[in-house]
Amino acid sequence: MIVTCVYIHVKPGSEDDFIKASEANHPESVKEAGNIRFDLIQQADDPASFMFYEAYESEEAVLTHKNTPHYLKWRDTVKDMMAEPRKGVRYNILMPKTVVK
């Protein structure tokens, strides 16, 4: 399983537009073959900071996601909202030992 946390800091005042664009991307992302989780969270003490928690079954599923029309539309829609480049960090799952979808 491939887990990535994508840290995003948007320009103040762009939060609602970022959420709206992400709400359009989310339902299609969770339908993708190989998707296990696709969560968006907003930092409680900094509403301009967000994180996507993405879990996919394989590297192939991750690459497929990055080439879907909904992802490409999201990426192009939010690019000017970014206060800084988004940062994806890969993680290894330690627990639970067995992942059930």
Folded structure, characterized:
There is one protein chain. 13% of the residues are buried. This protein has helices spanning 15-30, 59-65, 69-78; strands at 2-9, 35-42, 49-56, 87-91. It has a single domain, classed as Alpha-Beta Plaits, CATH 3.30.70.100. The longest helix has 16 residues, at 15-30. With 101 residues, the protein is of the alpha+beta class. β2 (35-42) and β3 (49-56) form a beta hairpin.
Short descriptors:
single chain; alpha+beta; 3 helices
Shape: globular
Cα distance spanning the termini: 11 Å
Write the element-wise H/E pattern from the N-terminal end onward.
EHEEHHE
User: What share of residues is helical?
Assistant: 25-40%
CATH topology: Alpha-Beta Plaits
Mean pLDDT: 95
CATH architecture: 2-Layer Sandwich
SSE map:
Layout: E1 2-9, H1 15-30, E2 35-42, E3 49-56, H2 59-65, H3 69-78, E4 87-91
Antiparallel strand pairs: 1-3, 1-4, 2-3
Summarize this, please?
With 101 residues, this protein is α+β, with helices and mostly antiparallel strands. It has helices at 15-30, 59-65, 69-78; strands spanning 2-9, 35-42, 49-56, 87-91. Helix 1 (15-30) packs antiparallel against helix 3 (69-78).
